[in-house]
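<context>
A single protein, sequence plus fold
<entry> Chain with its tokenised backbone below
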Amino acid sequence: MFGGLDNTAMKDSPSTQDQNWIDAGAVCVMPYYGPWSWMNNETVDFVDELVECVRREYGLISANPLIATGGSMGGYAALEYAIASKLSVTACFANCPVCDLAALYTERPDVPRTLHHAFGSYCDISAALKAHSPLQQVDQLPNIPYLIVHGAEDSSVTKATHSDRLAAAMRNRGLALEYVQVAGMGHCGPLSDEIVAQIECFVASGLI
């Protein structure tokens, strides 16, 4: 489970969603990487090492499912981790994900400094933004099940600029995608009981 931009809070107990996934047989892990990491190379390596540590601790093996989930920057991270990890991600759920870093760079005044920090330069980082954007890496997305949820009223990560374009490219590639477009919903919520159930069903099915 990947957190959003500036997410530094330490979880002290599972959420209701976490508990439902745990009841379905999951081991839920939230990596505490830098809040401005944008799944750069160092963060991918860190998460890979964390997953391997968890597998050793709980006696899991590489054949056990590895499902990437998250919202906003965390949704982006889930997609990007599926592409960049040396491990085999087996399913991916993203809520209101950032899909095009170059587009987000111009959409929000708070974002450019975080991207320059993530990619280690205050010079031109356009090549890095392209190299780390799911929309620009559609051909590298693994052939696994995907669930993307995006609110039509999202003003932080606009649906038309991000998920709509990625979903079209994924479908053009023939990837297994469930794309849920939610009228009236803003950034990452609120989620109806029906959509929560759909997310839980998607994750639970990936654990089998």
